Amino acid sequence: MTSIRRKLLLTLIGAMSLVLLIGAISALLGVLYAMGYCGTGLPMSTWLGHKLALRVLGDKNGATGFDGRPFPTRPFYNGNPWFLPLVVQWYGHKDRRDLKRARKAA
Q1: Is 92 helix (H, G, I), strand (E, B) or coil?
Q2: Whole-prediction pTM value?
Q3: Does 52 reside within a domain?
Q4: Which one of 6, 34, 58, 63 has the minimum C-beta count within 10 Å?
């Protein structure tokens, strides 16, 4: 596997949810939201958006087979994304490194 293909694969994996939480519609403080597309963003978000709209309208067809599932979490994560500044710095470092390599190659 080439480094470009490996980087693309890791990027796609990193863009997916932390868990295989497929098709979740939930409410927090009265705000409905859909999440957990797990790599199927376009079809799943379209379908869940429709289901969410039906719920807002009070239609019983807004229910999905994924309703009522708890949202699992990860170790050391309690709802406060303390790790995001570290992640932003890491990817900033990688961007600067790749830009420097590209300039040397040109």
Answers
A1: helix
A2: 0.49
A3: yes
A4: 58
